[in-house]
Amino acid sequence: MRAMSRNNRTTQRKHRKVSALAGAAALVATAALGSGTGAAAPAGKLVTYHGVSLRVPAAWPVIDLARHPGTCARLDRHAVYLGTPGDSADCPPRILGRTETISLRPAAATAAPGSTVVTRGVPEAAPRSTDHTGRVALAAAGVELTTTYGSRPELVDAVLASARITEQARPRAIREPENEPAVSTKVPGTFHGYGFDSCTAPSSKTMDAWLAKARFRAVGVYIGGGDLGCPDQPNLDPSWVARQTGKGWHVFAMYVGRQAPCSGEPYRITSAAKASGQAKADATDAVQQAKHYGLAAGSIIIHDMEFYPRGGSCSTAVLRYLSTWTATINALHYRSGVYSSRAAAIDELVAARKAGRYRMPGTIDFAQWDKKPTVNSRYIPSKYWSGHRMKQYWGAHTETHGGIKINIDADWLYVH
């Protein structure tokens, strides 16, 4: 899920390079382009999917997830993904950073939460949003189009400007998404025990198999954020949350918003002066995403603040950001949580709490990879966040239960 140290971040960069090569090897070649259809259209290659055609830059891999189900549809590198990500995708537990990507998959009868239904054609520009994601259901082709962007949304705009609905398209009636889901569940509830998190919410089949065989009873899910590079969530929706909690799982929600200005992440707090405004925008979006996924008021939403070198204006920016994050989440009737390396934002929060400065989150989730399932730490006074702690005690590793393998982080929770 979440990077903890310089060494771990170096490992992640190496993994990205290897994954990029693997993604290139899984490239599905499409017809070569002739002349363009307009000045905005990029040179490159033509991609067609279920009656939707568009031109993409030549360097972008085009990956058919049905033919290559083991490919992780990660959003931290340029790519076009065709089809729905599956449980067999080989994703690390967390992927950081978001760049320009296009995903096309069959649309459901009801558009996904946060989507816009378009009855004719294709939008000519990528929808702008706090988490840099746009979701559009193309009724004229029965296709769901998802776009993401990092620092250059105009690249996606150019691709969409070239898009057409072809004669091969099969129109489908698609209902608008529900503004408020019929089922809404407060999470994670009271729980003391083992949990895990992975890049995407596993299918219900996988959750059932792990419930029967694994020690875990809590599961972390990513609900959004501009620095989240994990694949779009094909399984996560209000019915998934209701089903898992009904089976006995305790779901906890994570949001990867802006990162420390001195970090190497692409989606950062721009300055201490702007930290509060940016935190308010992220927290408001996080609550909206929580509602989309059927997480009721009173649920905990955890901000994932990756490792950064502490000190000076960088620390000030982080504390201001997290303080406003907490104030905004709480004002919107949810409960604030903060995840970070114990040696990064958690130490900052401990020191600020002792000094009586800044708003404190109700729950902390700290990374300390000692493989000890406990929420105790000699660095965190026992009276601080008593009964409101989580610990990531084991980083990225693979476990198999019920014959199903997942790359996960392991957690210990003591929350109520």
From TrEMBL:
It comes from Actinocatenispora sera. Residues 209-412 form the Rv2525c-like glycoside hydrolase-like domain. The keyword Signal applies. This is Rv2525c-like glycoside hydrolase-like domain-containing protein. Keywords: Signal. Residues 1-31 form the signal peptide. It comes from the Bacteria. Gene3D superfamilies: Glycosidases (3.20.20.80). InterPro entries: GH, Rv2525c-like_Glyco_Hydro-like. Pfam families: Rv2525c_GlyHyd-like.
